[in-house]
Amino acid sequence: MTAQVVDPGLLGDIRRYGDADVSPCFSCGMCTATCPLSENDAAFPRRIIRYAQVGMREALLSSKELWTCYHCGECTDNCPTGADPAGFMAATRRYAIASYDRTRLARTMYTRPVVGTVIAILLAVFFALFMYTAHGPQSGASLALFEFIPEDLIHNTGIVVMTAVFLAGLAGIATMARHIGRREGVGWHDVAGGRTALARSGRALWFALGPETIGQRRFRAEGDVVQQELPWYRRRWLLHASTIWGFLGLLAATILDYGLALVGVRATGTPVPIWYPVRLLGTLAGLALIYGTTMLLAGRVRRVDRSSASSTASDWTLLALLWVTGASGFLIELALYLPQAPAWGYWVFLFHVAVAMELVLLAPFMKFAHAAYRPVALFFLALRPGHQDVPRQSA
Ligand code: SF4
Ligand code: SF4
Fold first, then answer.
1. Which ligand lies nearest the alpha carbon of 53?
2. Residue 78 and residue 383: Cα distance in Å, rounded?
């Protein structure tokens, strides 16, 4: 058995990632009893709070339970001492993202909001200037976007950015998986050592990616309990799904566009018909992204629920970048169909490319990283023998 190193400053460290007070907690367990998603083999939030209170940093970073919470706020509403376990779980997830990241950029984005905002602005300026140095003519006959900013430059830069993001994301996931695997006693042999292990891993992978990530099942279960009074189009899980799938749809349309252009199929940086498949995918994904981010931003301004009432600067930066990317994409689409190639279309295109590059590059260092970490935690959850994969419903 490995001895746990105790870190007396752990609770204070976590508070730098979100001002959620759990000091009055006396470990009664009411929050765990009322949480609709807590299960026998993944009990939280009481246990996670206890780890922080006694300084068990390794136990905290190796907790898959941390990632199964969807910040519905039910535990905070039922805490008899006025502690904020929901806010604490959110702050601890930010702390974990920063701890898995070796570059320390995530830590800066979360704990130094002014520096984080300056980094975000400088990155956008850098990408804009970089693209601008290679700019070509602005045709007045029709909007020739890829003559203005060469398509190869955009895509080669995109490949470099995505490679950096992939490596950073992979390093973070490997660190997290090592922590959880060590604690759960799960090694390579248990995951891929033979046909039985592979079949179980396949089922766990499907559980994590299919019903949970694509289908948002736990999030919807939380929504049934907490947000049943809201109309369906305002429920948190739908806004979350709309944002994340809108972003991924736009990314897929961009990659498809480039791939098809390589084999001689017309690119959407020209006025192709609206029903053109890649254009259609981009338009629908853009609408989903704008809808999700607009509603989430409005919810944070109005502080409509517990998760939006405890926004950090990094949350605002991420949502703002997503919204600006979607909105500027639609402006470009509008400009493409206007007569006489409006000059502003070229500048919006330059701005859009710079912000989109920045958004992708910063993804592993902001809240977006949970899109990778949560499925890993759910994968380990589903590997447990006798795992009950249907979330418990509250009365
Ligand atoms: S309900 Fe409140 S006091 Fe009880 S364990 Fe949870 S956070 Fe602590
Ligand atoms: S915020 Fe909701 S899902 Fe998270 S621990 Fe509290 S009750 Fe459970």
1. 1
2. 31
